[in-house]
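Data card: per-record layout.
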Amino acid sequence: MSTFKVTGLRTLVLPVTNVEASTAFYKDVLGFEEDSATDGMVWLRIGGQQGIALLLHSIEKPEPVENGLVMELAVDNVDAAASAVASSAGRVMQQPVDREWGVREAVMVDPDGYRIWLVQPLS
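The structure for this 123-residue chain is written out next.
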């Protein structure tokens, strides 16, 4: 048994090629709030001060992978979210669909190619 306890998930770091474009995408399309910015890094937040921070970190060549960590965002209207992404610098890979495990989901890709699931509970 461990001698310590993980108390929460604090920040996800996302390497991006264009911090300004990614900041605009995550703020204007997905609704994240900007906390601060410095030296090619921007801290965004979803869910208020108790929520999760997303650190956009400038890098020459991000390497999005299909078999790795995937971000899933809970949304209140997956169809509207997918429509907003389709009208932006992102793209929709999977249109909204109802799943047998009780969610309506869509899969989008951000400007750097990261896949993000948008999920809305069906009930």
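Known properties of this structure: The longest strand covers residues 91-98. Residues 19-29 form the longest helix (11 residues).

See the next section for split statistics.
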